[in-house]
Structure formats: structure tokens, C-alpha cells
Design a protein that fits this description.
The complex is a heterodimer of chains A (436) and B (228). Chain A is of the alpha+beta class and 436 residues long. In chain A, 54% of the residues lie in helices and 16% in strands. In chain A, helix 1 packs across helix 13, helix 2 packs antiparallel against helix 11 and helix 11 packs parallel to helix 14. With 228 residues, chain B is an alpha/beta fold. In chain B, 36% of the residues lie in helices and 29% in strands. A six-stranded mixed beta sheet of chain B has the order 6-7-8-3-9-10, with helices on both faces. A four-stranded antiparallel beta sheet of chain B has the order 2-1-4-5, with helices on one face. In chain B, a hairpin with a 2-residue loop joins strand 9 and strand 10. The longest helix of chain B is centred in the C-terminal third of the chain and has 18 residues. Chain B starts with a strand and ends with a strand. The chains are: A alpha+beta (436), B alpha/beta (228).
Chain lengths: 436, 228
């Protein structure tokens, strides 16, 4: 009863001076809105990067040769799945390009040669048709699966499956079209043509491939597989622990212990197996700064990018939090003014029987109303701001966590900065309050 | 037993090194249903005395017994409760809250008492009727004349159904004709409802509405005089 009334009285205190209340709320609202929108931008940037990496497929390990002499036999891909535990799919990869002719149009296109494991390996789906089969690969069949943009462009949206295109003069049957991944996602797969690696090797005129992709069953399996793959290729290059001494071929020593292009695990000689100090100096390959084979776990790329963006989000949030704090101080300021201005009112209420706790509650609730409404308005503005950012090309998302934190901090400020003025109000002796 | 009994009440303030004696050694008894006026020049301690009787201020020494209770040592919350249940205040400057209408102002004490809305409305309507303001229930103070505002203040006190009404120069801000209607209202409430009234004034004409006049000078009771 008393509480409901206190709530009404406090509301009255807010409503009786709309301009002042409005300005106070504005301070809080700006704080809340900036926390929500800035955190939204940070979070949006993070998600965009994460999504981009995720579009590459999960638990994928990329093995890449950077030297022609270290390139792989295509059969190695299958062997790896058998030898390394936890691996499920594998594909040799050949990248090349060709002149495509479609009816009377012609143009240069990127070709990706892969095995029939490709859709499962890189988490691709098809919008129409089917992917080519192991049999197609074996037969070096002239079949092609189109990236979404190419596929959609040929017949103005109708499925081109069953039609033919020519690549470098050879006729290919279109068997499927991949689902859209989005601009810049999945290494730009939307604009590529995917054919069996055997066929692609023929176009490129090569007998080896410079890339092998494998997919592990889980993130944990990927971590374990990386170590095992590292051992396999170290041995293959003659960098095995038992035979650490370079024997001639440049590719066997051209390892740096440093970072590869990604954050994966470059195959590297451990420093331990070369105990003799001159040994270190006598490996000029170390200074070349070039890896012969890199093994990269795409999962770790995601994690790194995620971590970096998290820091940025926190930083933005911190800046916004300062403005929220300033808004809270505004409440304190206005409440202190209100207490001074309304000493007479406090006196009358005390004379009529209000206890100190009644006044404490009234002024505290008033501060809470201001911060609460400010928080509500700020949330609305923040959400609106996120929408605006999105419309003008900035990826921003509404982070529920940011909303929660901002609103709680705003209410907390109201409560915290309302306590002192409310206490002051309640502590004025009634006689003195009435005299003013 | 008198409703109010003051024994040797003193009140002093410290102002830097100077101690100001506002009241010294006041003995006063007011019976139930009495209408007492306190008079005296400004600075004689009239208001201080009224504040102490109204439990708005505490005496520096002496005993104050209100309706059989020793009041001077009660807690702040207890004093709030006593003001709320026993005492209605009428001030010179009305002391109405500007944002509330007549109803809102008059129901304030009942709200702090925890009376339910329906009962509150009923009692406030009755009180406003008793002071002749039935048609001004939803007017705010700024829409009322001085006399009407003072009558809202009296209705606020009446709604409390108090034992005691304390009035501090209730006609001080009003013209003499309006002042007299307010005084008539007090006399009526005192006569018909038996409410004890203690009023501070420096106007002799107004003081004569009461039964007894207590004259203060320099914080002491100089003399008492029965009216009529």
C-alpha cells in the first residue's frame, strides 16, 4: 500500500517537471544506446569474420606445398585418411583457369579440381543437380558443378543442369549447381567452376597437386591429426628426428620454425635434434623465411580472428560505458537539485506523517524511474541504431548481452546515484524543512 | 487528565558560540476540546512552542506528555506516526503541494497512514464538504484563492480525524474578511466536533475566537487570559 503510493508519488515527481526529467533521461539513454550500438558493431564485425571462416568448412586441415619439388601425388589424399586416425574426407586440389564458352559468350573462369568428397569436406550443398561421383573422377569425366553465381547467370535463374559448356574447347556436362555462400565467403566459391581433379590436372598439364584438403571428425580430432600429419611430412621431407641433418635437396631444409601464412603448423625441424651449435648456422634454409609445406587447421584461424575482434568489442563497450556512467552522474546531479528545491515539500510530507523511509523510497524510486525510462529509450534508440548501421553497410548485430549489461548498469547507476540524494532528503529535520 | 501537558520545557539553539534560548521553563496544560491561542511579539518563541507541541521539533529539556504518552524521547518514526494519527497542521502559507489537486493534497496523511483508496476518498470528500469546497475537489492550489487554499489545508487536517489541530498564523496571509471565515470554521469544528485547537497569532481580534490566550515574551509565559 505504502509502496504503491510511494511509486505514484515518485512518478509524480518525474512528471511534474517534464523538461528536466527528459534531459536527465536523455543522458542515460545516450549511454545505453551507445553501449548497445557500439557493442553491436564490434559483435557484428566479429561474427562477420567468424562466419567467413566458418564458410570454409569446419575441422578442415589444408596441406599446401610451396615448392614444386614437394608437391603431392593425388593418391596421397586417400592414403592420409587411412593412415591418420580421425580423418574422414580428403581431396587433392588443383587450381587453374580456363576460357569458358557458353552459347555465344566467352570468358575466363577459375577452375577448382577436387575429389567427390568436396561437398562434405567444405560443407557445401547443391541447389540443383548432383555432385560428381568417384567414378567421374576416375574416368576424368568432363563434368562440371557450377558455383552459384555462374550457375544462376547462365539461364537467368533457371537450372542449367544437363546443359553443356566448353572449357578450353572441351565440352563439359553441367551436373549440379552449388548453394550460394555469399560474397567473399568460402574462398569465393560462388564464382568458380568445380570439376574432378583428374580432369583439372589434364587442363593444367600437371601430374602432381600442390594442395590436399582433409576433414577431421571433430575439432579435437583435427588437433590430433595436425600433429600426426606434421610427423608424416617431416619424415617425408627427411626432417625426421632420426635424420635431422640436411642431405642436399633444398626442399629438405627450407623450413622455418616461424609462422606459416596462417596460424597452422608449418612443418618444422625441432631445434632439439640439432644440438651442435654450428649446425644451426649451417642450415641456410632457415634464413630463407619460406616454408616448403604448411599444414593449417582452419579452426584455429577462426579462433584467432574471434579473439582479436572480442578485444575490439570490449574496447568499444568500454568507451560507451563511460558515457553511461556520465548519464548516471546526471541522475545524481538532478536528484540533488530536486532535493534542495523540494525541501518545502519534504517538510510538508514529514509534518503529515511521512517517515524517513517513505521519503527515502520516494526519491530512490524517482531516480530509478529516470534511469529505467532512460534505459528503455536508450535500448530503443540502440536497436534502431543497429538497424541504421546495417542499412548503411556496417555489419552490426544486437547482442543480447550488451542490452542486458547496459540496462542493468543504467538501473544500477540510478540506484547508486539516487541513494545519496534520497538519504539527504530523508535526513532533513521536519522543522528545518518546513522553514524553507 | 489534560490532552497536552508541558513541564519545564526548554529549547535552545547553538549558533556558533552563542546559545539562543528560544523557550525556557514552559509549563502548560491544554485540556481536551479546548481552543487555546498563543500570542506574543515575533521572536517570543510562539512557533518554536507550536513545533514542539506538534512533534516537529524536540525540546532541549523538560517533559512533554501528549494524551498520556511521554513524547520527547520517542524515535523519529514514532513521532511521524503520532503526527499522522493525532495532529492536524494548518500553516500560514498553507503548505499545499502544488502538483496535486485538493483531493490529492487532503488525502496525503491518510495515504501515509495506509488507509485504502475508497475509504480515503470518502473521508476526504466529507472533509472538503465540511469546509465548503465540494465543488473544488479537482482544482490545483494555483487555481484556488488564498482562503480556499487554507480551507483545503483545514480539510486535509480534518480528514485525519485528529485530536488536535495546530494552526500557525492561519490567517496571516489572508485578508481580514476571509480570515474571519476561517476563524469561524475553526470555532465550529471546535464546538461541534470537540477538536482541540491550539493557534498561534499576533492578531488580537483573531485570538479572541479562542477560550484562552497564552501570552509569550522572550521564551517565557508572561500571562494567561480567559476570553469572554
Amino acid at each position: 500500500m505504502r509502496f504503491i503510493f510511494g511509486a505514484q508519488m515518485a512518478w509524480h515527481g518525474v512528471a511534474v517537471n517534464p523538461l528536466r526529467s527528459g534531459l536527465t533521461m536523455l543522458g542515460v539513454a545516450i549511454g545505453v544506446a551507445s553501449v548497445i550500438s557500439l557493442m553491436g558493431i564490434g559483435e557484428g564485425a566479429r561474427l562477420a569474420v567468424v562466419r567467413q571462416f566458418e564458410s570454409l568448412g569446419s575441422n578442415v586441415i589444408v596441406i599446401k606445398a610451396h615448392d614444386a619439388k614437394a608437391e603431392f601425388q593425388p593418391e596421397e589424399a586417400r592414403e592420409l585418411v587411412e593412415r591418420v586416425s580421425g580423418l574422414r574426407y580428403a581431396s587433392p586440389v588443383t587450381r587453374t583457369n580456363a576460357v569458358m564458352k557458353w552459347r555465344r559468350a566467352r570468358g575466363q573462369v577459375d577452375i577448382l579440381g577436387v575429389s567427390s568428397d568436396f561437398p562434405q569436406l567444405r560443407d557445401h550443398k547443391l541447389v540443383s543437380g548432383r555432385f560428381f561421383t568417384p567414378w567421374h573422377v576416375e574416368q576424368r569425366s568432363p563434368v562440371a558443378v557450377l558455383g552459384y553465381n555462374i550457375g544462376a547467370g547462365l539461364l537467368g535463374g533457371r537450372s542449367p543442369v544437363g546443359q553443356t559448356v566448353t572449357l578450353n574447347g572441351q565440352t563439359f556436362r553441367i551436373v549440379g549447381v552449388l548453394e550460394k555462400k555469399g560474397e567473399g565467403q568460402g574462398e569465393g566459391i560462388d564464382d568458380k567452376i568445380i570439376i574432378p581433379y583428374t580432369t583439372a590436372m589434364k587442363i593444367a598439364g600437371k601430374r602432381t597437386v600442390d594442395e590436399i584438403w582433409v576433414k577431421a571428425e571433430s575439432a579435437k580430432a583435427a588437433d590430433l591429426a595436425i600433429a600426426q600429419l606434421g610427423r608424416i611430412y617431416r619424415r617425408k621431407l627427411g626432417l625426421d628426428n632420426k635424420a635431422p641433418v640436411p642431405t642436399g635437396g633444398e626442399q629438405k631444409q627450407g623450413e622455418t620454425p616461424g609462422e606459416g601464412p596462417g596460424t597452422g603448423k608449418p612443418v618444422e625441424p625441432k631445434p632439439a635434434p640439432a644440438p651442435e651449435t654450428p649446425g644451426k648456422d649451417s642450415t641456410p634454409g632457415l634464413e630463407l623465411g619460406k616454408d616448403i609445406i604448411t599444414i593449417t587447421n582452419l579452426n584455429t584461424l577462426v579462433e584467432e580472428a574471434d579473439k582479436a575482434n572480442r578485444v575490439m568489442t570490449l574496447l568499444l563497450g568500454g568507451i560507451a560505458a563511460v558515457s553511461l556512467l556520465v548519464g548516471g552522474l546526471g541522475i545524481m546531479n538532478i536528484m540533488l537539485v530536486a532535493v534542495t528545491e523540494r525541501t518545502g515539500e519534504i517538510g510538508v510530507r514529514r509534518a503529515l506523517g511521512a517517515k524517513r523511509s517513505d521519503l527515502l523510497m520516494q526519491f530512490l524510486l524517482e531516480a530509478l524511474y529516470l534511469s529505467g525510462m532512460g534505459a528503455a529509450a536508450g535500448t530503443a534508440a540502440g536497436l534502431w541504431g543497429v538497424g541504421i548501421f546495417n542499412r548503411y553497410g556496417l555489419t552490426a548485430v544486437v547482442s543480447l548481452e550488451a542490452v542486458k549489461v547496459a540496462v542493468l548498469v543504467a538501473l544500477g547507476c540510478g540506484l547508486l546515484f539516487g541513494v545519496y540524494p534520497a538519504w539527504t532528503a530523508a535526513s532533513v529535520p521536519p522543522v528545518e524543512a518546513l522553514r524553507r | 487528565m489534560p490532552l497536552i501537558e508541558l513541564r519545564g520545557i526548554t529549547r535552545w539553539y547553538r549558533n556558533g558560540r552563542v546559545v539562543i534560548n528560544a523557550l525556557s521553563d514552559i509549563d502548560l496544560a491544554v485540556g481536551k476540546g479546548e481552543f487555546v491561542t498563543i500570542m506574543g511579539p515575533s521572536g517570543s518563541g510562539k512557533s518554536t512552542l507550536l513545533n514542539i507541541i506538534g512533534c516537529l521539533d524536540r525540546p532541549s529539556g523538560g517533559e512533554y506528555i501528549l494524551d498520556g504518552m511521554r513524547v520527547e524521547r520517542l524515535s523519529d518514526d514514532k513521532l511521524s506516526e503520532i503526527r499522522n494519527r493525532y495532529i492536524g497542521f494548518v500553516f500560514q502559507s498553507f503548505h499545499l503541494l502544488p502538483g496535486l489537486d485538493a483531493m490529492g493534497n487532503a488525502e496525503l496523511p491518510l495515504i501515509y497512514r495506509g488507509v485504502g483508496a475508497a475509504e480515503r476518498r470518502r473521508r476526504v470528500r466529507q472533509a472538503l464538504e465540511a469546509v465548503g469546497l465540494s465543488d473544488r475537489i479537482h482544482h490545483k492550489p494555483s487555481e484556488l484563492s488564498g482562503g480556499e487554499q487554507q480551507r483545503v489545508a483545514i480539510a486535509r487536517a480534518l480528514a485525519q480525524e485528529p485530536l488536535l489541530i495546530l494552526a500557525d498564523e492561519p490567517t496571516g496571509a489572508l485578508d481580514s474578511k476571509t480570515g474571519r471565515t476561517i476563524m469561524e470554521l475553526f470555532r465550529k469544528l471546535n464546538a461541534e466536533r470537540g477538536i482541540t485547537i491550539i493557534m498561534v497569532t499576533h492578531d488580537r481580534d483573531m485570538a479572541r475566537y479562542g477560550h484562552r490566550i497564552v501570552k509569550l515574551l522572550d521564551g517565557r509565559i508572561k500571562e494567561e487570559e480567559l476570553v469572554g
